[in-house]
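Hello Y.,

Per our agreement to keep a running log of every chain we model this quarter, I'm adding this entry. I've kept the format consistent with earlier entries: sequence first, then predicted structure.
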Amino acid sequence: MRRYDLALAWNSGSTENFIKWIRKECALRKLKFLLVTDKNVSGVIDELEKGTLKIRFLMDNEADYNDTKNLFARLCYAVKDVDGYVVCDPDDARQAANKAVTHYDLVKAKIPVPHTVVVRNWEPDDFNLTKDELKKLGNPFIIKPASGFGQKGVIKDASGSITEIAQARHFNRGDDFLLQEKVEPITIDSRQAWFRTYFLFGEIIPCWWDTAIGRYTHVTLRELHNFNLLSLARIVSEIARITNMDFFSSEIAITGSGKDRHFVAIDYVNDQPELCVRSQKGQEGPVPEVVQHIAERIAEIAWRMSNAIPVGIHRSIWLAKAMLEDESI
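Predicted structure for the entry above:
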């Protein structure tokens, strides 16, 4: 039987920096690494199901659990069914990916979220909002599929007409849809207070995120202190506890001023965070140091599991490397 200590399900190109970094970290720990792409996923599943291949630890970046024919979703279950470890258990990931489910879980846990109306898939095409619902949602508001990802099917400037809502829902008529208040972030230090914060096996990695161009900037210790950003860690930790997810990112914004200043969870759980470092586009995309750290941490967890060493997950915050002027904080 062939055995692999760490496998990565990945279709974003084998020359990406993340692949290079995770291969390097595996080599340092003498872990046997397998890259699973659309070219070999069928064969890998076949060998797993026949018992001729064993994957001890799988990190998935491709599964779509809403697609019954998705091979990467089947791969995750094939690994789980033979006692391999899947980062974000398939059943937990399936549940967390449904925003209509997660929304109510967060509301119950008193995590601040935008005002939301959930439209179930069985509602007729002439579904209409009440005057009170329209008032609470504001104008414009957001329409998004409960099981959507990557901004697909999202309407960012909805006004609430029957026709508009019906057309948006026909992106996937079998899905529930969220009609959601549009949150306007405040400005902090000339930047919009919008964050993409990673949760990685107990570690919280907060990043500023520019929604216009997709630029990430790693939060510093000084910023965490001066701008009172510790709630980012609290909210993401609570989401992790509720959803039982190992690795994901959340979008969180700050809105209001003075006593009304508060954090709001916008995009609750992205179980396949962006990991492609797009250096050719300047400052857009994830921070290279953050992605490299994720590769290192994933390999470390896989090494511990392969050697039966307790992972020992504790909450910690991983911040940008301190510059000289930050060392007083």
